[in-house]
Design brief:
Number of domains of chain A: 2
CATH architecture of chain B: 2-Layer Sandwich
Structural class of chain B: alpha+beta
Largest interface: A-B, 93 and 59 residues
Largest sheet of chain B: 3 strands, antiparallel
Shape of chain B: globular
Mean pLDDT of chain B: 94
Mean pLDDT of chain A: 93
Helix content of chain A: 25-40%
Number of domains of chain B: 1
CATH class of chain B: Alpha Beta
Number of strands of chain A: 6
Helix content of chain B: 40-55%
CATH topology of chain B: Enolase-like, domain 1
Number of helices of chain B: 4
Largest sheet of chain A: 4 strands, antiparallel
Strand content of chain B: 25-35%
Radius of gyration of chain B: 19 Å
Low-confidence stretches of chain A: none
Low-confidence stretches of chain B: none
Strand order of the largest sheet of chain B: 1-2-3
Order of helices and strands of chain B: HHEEEHH
Distance between the termini of chain B: 57 Å
Oligomer: heterodimer
Chain lengths: 349, 140
């Protein structure tokens, strides 16, 4: 038995890629624009998991991969490495978020009130099958209020801290390049908090939900209540060469705070991500809430959930099993045959 | 121009409509004379956020931006906008340069005021629609 050099798959590989891409046909700017307009929440999800914010690129990645999400995120992360980093923006503070939706399940009367924003939470889940019979679905438009909503609101936890319900640590003074970055440093355990939250921000939505749901069902120490869920836009604050601070534009972000009773105070979990993705934020914040003191190997242990929610690594490891393992598998068969032969030679007495 | 005014002008230009900013910048080019292009490229800006539970600053991810850095006789013009429209970033840098040189300052101020008003109105309309979703709760 030895490693065997083989050849002969080139044509099959080339044709198989053609077969995959043939199904999607020609991709042009019209398709990218349509995907961006029709599927903003999917575009958001892909941008969050790729940790690269650009709707056009995310829509293109979806078009090119036929919506195979792991491939879409991978191609975006690969593209990201071709670009120079021009700088680090100013830290986004909650009070500067241009807020579209802000609700609390913990307190009815939060300062600023409950603003539902865009959501299907209270809608009937009815498939509009008439569309397939040629009748367009034209949902009614919003009746705008006379006065605008306040654009900016502090976090609910800041209000709770003022009412002695939670202990909030002072904000760290770390900024710019000094902020720990998992794309440039290895993830080590116990993880730096900045690494944990960045990893969750770019984690795969389904994986985060699965582990967060495990914690919610009782495989964790704390049951979450949504203290604040917010969909907003954040300013990307950069600097002119002369030092003037300005916004290079806005990006959509989601954030969730979850709470549970811890002694005489409330314990807090937090998560945020690019784009509007509520399930991911609530699940990730639940994992954050449960991480402290979690048993080794449990779904809520930091090392367990951070390693298993990294979508590119997880899907990459999964699909590598499709690649030829002829030698290792053959050695397993040899071991099985040897064991069988030994049994025949030395029958049990 | 104060630093705050300058910051507001740049923020307005970064968000300005791409077609309008390019068209306006075209009108400034002849008066600006010879310009040195220091940088015209796309790149990434890492965006950190504050964690309200621990007070920690952490990275959300990187934002694709276009950057233009130009100069003329020691005066700098700079543009950075979200997205990959290099021409729009260059238009922003040209307006910044023209405003700093003083030659096109009034026209630039007028353009920025017009764009700022359009952006404020757009935000107002967005927030009126958001306000329509406010819950007025009543306890029985």
């Amino acid at each position: 038995m030895a490693y065997v050099a083989t050849r002969g798959g080139e044509r099959a590989i080339a044709q198989s890629e053609r077969l995959f891409r043939e199904a999607m046909g020609q991709i042009d700017m019209t398709r990218v624009a349509e995907l961006k307009a029709a599927l903003p929440y999917l575009v958001d999800r892909v941008m969050g998991e790729a940790s690269l914010y650009d709707e056009d690129l995310a829509a293109l990645a979806l078009a090119q991969t036929g919506g195979e999400l792991y491939e879409a995120v991978l191609v975006l992360r690969a593209w990201r490495t071709t670009q120079p980093r021009l700088g680090v923006g100013a830290v986004v503070e909650q009070g500067t978020l241009f807020t579209h939706r802000r609700i609390s399940a913990a307190f009815k009367d939060i300062p600023g009130g409950q603003v539902l924003g865009p959501t299907l939470d209270y809608s009937h889940r009815v498939l509009e099958t008439d569309v397939l019979a040629g009748k367009p679905f034209a949902p009614p438009l919003v009746d705008p209020a006379t006065a605008p909503a306040p654009a900016y609101q502090p976090s609910v936890s800041a209000w709770q801290a003022a009412n002695d319900l939670v202990d909030l640590p002072l904000s760290d003074k770390v900024a710019g390049e000094a902020i720990a970055d998992v794309t440039r440093e290895p993830l080590l355990f116990p993880s730096k908090r900045a690494h944990t939250l960045q990893s969750l921000a770019r984690a795969e939505t389904g994986s985060v939900l699965a582990l967060g749901y495990a914690a919610m069902r009782g495989y964790g120490q704390a049951h979450p209540t949504v203290n604040e869920l917010r969909l907003a836009e954040a300013e990307v604050m950069v600097k002119h060469p002369n030092g003037t601070a300005f916004s290079a534009g806005r990006v959509k972000v989601s954030q969730a705070e979850v709470v549970s009773k811890q002694g005489e105070k409330l314990g807090l979990g937090f998560a945020a991500t690019f784009g509007w993705n509520e399930v991911k934020c609530i699940s990730a914040a639940t994992l954050d809430l449960n991480a402290k003191g979690a048993p080794k190997g449990s779904a809520t242990e930091e090392e367990f959930f951070l390693y298993h929610t990294e979508g590119v690594e997880a899907s990459g490891f999964c699909i590598h099993f499709k690649l030829p393992h002829y030698v290792t598998f053959q050695s397993s068969l040899d071991a099985m045959r040897d064991a069988k032969a030994k049994q025949v030679k030395e029958p049990a007495e | 121009m104060t630093m705050r005014d300058h910051g507001e002008m740049l923020s307005t230009l970064a968000r300005a409509d791409a077609g309008r900013i390019k068209a306006f910048a075209e009108t400034l080019i002849d008066d600006l004379g010879e310009i040195t292009v220091v940088e015209s490229r796309t790149g990434l800006v890492m965006l950190p956020m504050r964690d309200t539970a621990g007070g920690t600053a952490f990275h959300l991810g990187e934002v694709l931006v276009s950057e233009a850095h130009i100069s003329q006789g020691g005066t700098i013009g700079y543009g950075m906008r979200r997205g990959r429209d290099l021409e729009a970033a260059m238009a922003m840098a040209l307006i910044d340069l023209a405003a700093a040189c003083g030659s096109g300052a009034d026209a630039c101020a007028a353009f920025c005021a017009q764009e700022a008003a359009a952006q404020a109105e757009q935000d107002r309309q967005t927030l009126r629609r958001v306000e329509a979703t406010r819950v007025d709760m009543e306890t029985f």
